[in-house]
């Protein structure tokens, strides 16, 4: 999810702070901090806030986060010292609580899910996402239902199978052409997720260049909103987004995206009208080939007039799907493949499984996937160690709550450090080791019921795109290891593969994965 990224606050905070003369900035903040302090002193709490590190006036704990660009690591280290379950941080004007243990995650995402199931109202949600991602409301509930049932539920996802298979086959063909040469695998992988999402959303469009242009725009928005935006931390300073140029940048991107969406969705609408003229409503072939926009049109036609689904909503849901579904879903594939390269024994075992199960085939198709049990474990372990969204997405408490004897006031921002939780040594043996066998014959899964394994979050705000994303991840990885053997360039030792993380919209590899594909001879040609 590239959206409303909380997790990259730090990198972007640094960027933005350097563009504003610091002294002016400090004076402005001081003025507002005094105003705020006087209003805050009127409130009283009955229980203590969770413990936390010492705070500076005005910036609170921001300086303690700036010591590392990998904020999830920094938060884990701070939590170990100051609050292993719950830790209080003051970031700018806003009170934050960091959740770092499975026990505390259960309290937040299950016991008190209703209170903590809202999202903060961030500028990016209003300006880029047509408000579909904002706080919990009737509108959000309706959009969430659409996402789950209409677009991303398992039944609908099954209908996108031909798209997934053809995009993966296209990749295999391209890689075969480049046999023996180093290729930027990271780039290819994000192309597959972009391609699948584009075709699932819009089908085939007239302008052959539209896909590349639209995906470039999605990438632009992803980069722009990836961050701990300083203006989000000082909401009372309404002029900050304008002063830092953030508002102008978001508006520019939004207008460009909006124009393209109007164009592409307009084309879909025209096709639909033409189809209906020719076949009437009873066109079963068209129904079987419905894309995401068609489904949204159907829902619009049958929607309750008291809560109509508007063109604004349709654009919002479509754009959200791209922002949420491309970057975030690429990462599990990229990290899991990297781990297999770095651990040749795991790669060998996974390849033996798929090559045995699919012996003689040209391609691993979806009906073969259920046989690949070891690959399932490898993917789960990849998700455990490398969460795409290590801090999930930001939440906000709707009312005052008490957890483990601590007070969490209403309107507190909640950061759930899923990355730290997925590596909690109290729940995982050799927690930092890539060891897929730990998932063999084990009932733990990522569906949000095991709070020590939450790569997709849990509760009412859990990721609705699991089926959509994971169906591509597994098909893609199965084919990459079935159709090719892989070597590192310059005969580098696999164990030396650099796994440094880069904190952006999601946590990705700092250096793209460059590999040499060698087609597998046992494949049927
Ligand atoms: C396969 C890799 C993916 C991972 C690891 C992932 C992870 C996540 C996580 C951690 C969250 C936040 C959950 C929380 O706050 O509790 C989230 C939210 C979300 N994800 Fe995903 N996601 C993936 C793929 C997708 C795809 C493919 C889509 C859509 C096509 C999608 C759509 C969404 C949406 C719309 C939300 C926001 C839900 C809300 O606020 O109610 N995700 N995802």
Automatic annotation (TrEMBL):
Pfam families in the record: p450 (PF00067)
InterPro entries named among the record's database cross-references: Cyt_P450, Cyt_P450_CS, Cyt_P450_E_grp-I, Cyt_P450_sf
Annotated transmembrane regions: 15-34
Keyword DNA damage among UniProt keywords: no
MF terms (GO), sorted A to Z: heme binding; iron ion binding; monooxygenase activity; oxidoreductase activity, acting on paired donors, with incorporation or reduction of molecular oxygen
Entry keywords, A to Z: Heme, Iron, Membrane, Metal-binding, Monooxygenase, Oxidoreductase, Transmembrane, Transmembrane helix
Protein name in the entry: Cytochrome P450
């Amino acid at each position: 999810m590239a959206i409303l990224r909380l997790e990259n606050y730090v990198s972007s905070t640094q960027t933005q702070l350097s563009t504003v003369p610091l002294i002016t900035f400090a004076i402005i903040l001081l003025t507002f901090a005094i105003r705020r302090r006087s209003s805050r002193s009127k409130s009283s709490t009955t229980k203590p806030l969770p413990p936390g590190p010492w705070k500076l006036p005005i910036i609170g704990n921001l300086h303690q986060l700036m010591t590392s660009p990998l904020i999830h690591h920094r938060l884990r280290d701070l939590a170990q010292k100051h609050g292993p379950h719950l830790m209080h941080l003051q970031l700018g004007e806003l009170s934050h609580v960091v959740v770092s243990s499975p026990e505390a995650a259960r309290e937040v995402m299950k016991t008190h899910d209703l209170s903590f199931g809202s999202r903060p109202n961030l500028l990016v949600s209003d300006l880029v996402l047509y408000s579909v991602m904002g706080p919990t409301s009737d509108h959000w509930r309706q959009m969430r239902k659409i996402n789950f049932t209409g677009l991303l539920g398992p039944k609908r996802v099954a209908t996108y199978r031909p798209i997934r298979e053809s995009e993966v086959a296209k990749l295999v063909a391209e890689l075969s052409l480049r046999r023996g040469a180093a290729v930027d695998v990271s780039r290819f992988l994000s192309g597959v997720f972009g391609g699948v999402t584009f075709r699932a959303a819009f089908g085939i469009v007239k302008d052959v260049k539209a896909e590349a242009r639209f995906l470039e725009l999605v990438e632009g928005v992803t980069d722009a909103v990836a961050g701990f935006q300083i203006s989000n931390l000082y909401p009372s300073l309404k002029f900050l987004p304008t002063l830092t140029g953030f508002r102008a940048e978001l508006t520019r991107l939004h207008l460009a995206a909006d124009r393209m969406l109007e164009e592409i969705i307009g084309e879909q609408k025209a096709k639909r009208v033409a189809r209906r003229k020719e076949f009437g409503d009873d066109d079963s072939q068209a129904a079987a080939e419905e894309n995401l926009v068609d489904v949204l049109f159907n829902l619009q036609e049958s929607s309750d007039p008291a809560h109509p689904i508007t063109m604004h909503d349709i654009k919002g849901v479509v754009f959200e799907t791209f922002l949420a579904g491309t970057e975030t879903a690429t990462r599990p594939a990229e990290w899991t493949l990297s781990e297999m390269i770095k651990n040749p024994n795991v790669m060998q075992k996974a390849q033996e499984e798929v090559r045995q199960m699919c012996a003689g085939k040209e391609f691993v198709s979806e009906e073969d996937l259920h046989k690949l049990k070891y690959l399932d474990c490898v993917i789960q372990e990849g998700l455990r160690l490398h969460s795409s969204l290590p801090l999930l997405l930001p939440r906000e408490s709707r009312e005052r709550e008490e957890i483990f004897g601590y007070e969490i006031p209403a309107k507190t921002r909640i950061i759930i450090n899923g990355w730290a939780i997925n590596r909690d040594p109290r729940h995982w043996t050799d927690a930092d080791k890539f060891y897929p066998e730990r998932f063999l014959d084990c009932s733990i899964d990522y569906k949000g019921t095991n709070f020590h394994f939450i790569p997709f979050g849990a509760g009412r705000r859990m990721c609705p795109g699991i089926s959509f994303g994971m169906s591509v991840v597994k098909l893609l990885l199965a084919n990459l290891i079935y159709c090719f053997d892989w070597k590192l360039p310059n005969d580098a030792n696999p164990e030396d593969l650099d796994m440094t993380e880069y904190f952006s919209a999601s946590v990705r590899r700092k250096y793209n994965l460059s590999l040499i594909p060698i087609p597998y001879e046992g494949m049927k040609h």
